[in-house]
Design a protein that fits this description.
Elements (H helix, E strand, L loop, with lengths): L10 E6 L3 H13 L2 E7 L14 E2 L6 H4 L5 E4 L4 H13 L7 E2 L4 E2 L4 E2 L4 E2 L4 E2 L4 E2 L4 E2 L4 E2 L4 E2 L4 E2 L4 E2 L4 E2 L4 E2 L4 E2 L4 E2 L4 E2 L4 E2 L8 E3 L4 E2 L2
Parallel strand pairs: 1-2, 1-4, 2-3, 5-8, 6-9, 7-10, 8-11, 9-12, 10-13, 11-14, 12-15, 13-16, 14-17, 15-18, 16-19, 17-20, 18-21, 20-22
Antiparallel strand pairs: 22-23
Length: 217
C-alpha cells in the first residue's frame, strides 16, 4: 500500500534515491509535515532497497522528463557528491523545483543561507552568516559555525565540527566526527577522514586522515 499522509494543502515530493540516504531523507521529509505524498525514484547507478509502504520507480524504466514534472518538488538522496550533482542537473534542466529538507530539530541562524537541494538533518547547527551551497548534506549533530562556507555538493557527516570562517570546497566529503579548525580551507573534491582534526589548509583533490590530519599517500 502506498503511503499518503493525511495533511491538507501540502505538496507531492519525489525522493530521487531509494537507498540508505533515501530512508534518511524520508524521515526528514515526514518530520517537516509539508508533504501529502512521498514517492521514490531509484538511482540507476545504485539500485534500491525495500521501503515498505512507498512507491519506488525504477530510473531505468521511467521517462524521467515526464516523471519529474509530475511532482511539486524533488530531492536527491545520495551520499555520492558526484551523483547528487548529476541528478540535480537533470532536475534543474527539467524546470522542476528542488526541495530543501530541514529537520525541525536543526538550528539555523536567521543570517545563515541554505541553498536549494540541501538536506539538513537532526540536531544539525548552522550558525550566523554561514553559507551552505546547492545539494549539500549536513548530517546529524554536525556543527557549521559562524561565517563558514560549504560550497555546492558537499557531504558533511554526523558529528562534524567546523570552526568559524572554515571553508569546504565543492564536492568534498567530511568524514564522521572530524574537526576543521577556525579559518581552515579544505579544497575541492577532497576527503577528510573520520575523526581527523584538520589544523592546516587541505589542497584540492587529496585525502587527509589522523590527528593532526595529514595527507594520505
Amino acid at each position: 500500500m502506498e503511503h499518503t499522509a493525511n495533511i491538507p494543502n501540502t505538496k507531492r515530493l519525489l525522493i530521487w534515491g531509494a537507498g540508505d540516504q533515501g530512508t534518511v531523507a524520508l524521515d526528514c521529509a515526514l518530520a517537516t509535515k509539508k508533504y501529502s505524498r512521498i514517492d521514490f525514484l531509484d538511482i540507476r547507478e545504485k539500485g534500491h532497497r525495500q521501503i515498505p509502504g512507498y512507491r519506488i520507480y525504477e530510473e531505468a524504466k521511467e521517462n524521467i522528463n515526464t516523471l519529474l514534472p509530475s511532482y511539486d518538488e524533488v530531492i536527491v538522496a545520495s551520499g555520492s557528491n558526484y551523483l547528487r550533482e548529476k541528478k540535480i542537473a537533470q532536475i534543474l534542466a527539467a524546470g522542476v523545483p528542488l526541495a530543501t529538507l530541514i529537520h525541525p530539530t536543526a538550528v539555523i541562524s536567521p543570517s545563515a543561507r541554505v541553498s536549494k537541494g540541501c538536506t539538513i538533518l537532526t540536531n544539525a547547527v548552522i550558525n550566523s552568516n554561514a553559507y551552505v551551497g546547492i545539494g549539500c548534506i549536513v548530517n546529524t549533530n554536525a556543527v557549521v559555525e559562524h561565517d563558514c562556507l560549504a560550497e555546492d555538493y558537499v557531504n558533511i557527516c554526523p558529528q562534524v565540527s567546523m570552526g568559524g570562517h572554515a571553508k569546504i570546497g565543492r564536492r568534498s566529503f567530511i568524514g564522521i566526527g572530524s574537526t576543521i579548525l577556525d579559518h581552515i580551507t579544505v579544497g575541492r573534491e577532497s576527503i577528510v577522514g573520520a575523526g581527523a582534526v584538520v589544523i592546516r589548509n587541505v589542497p584540492d583533490g587529496v585525502t587527509v586522515v589522523g590527528v593532526p590530519a595529514k595527507r594520505r599517500l
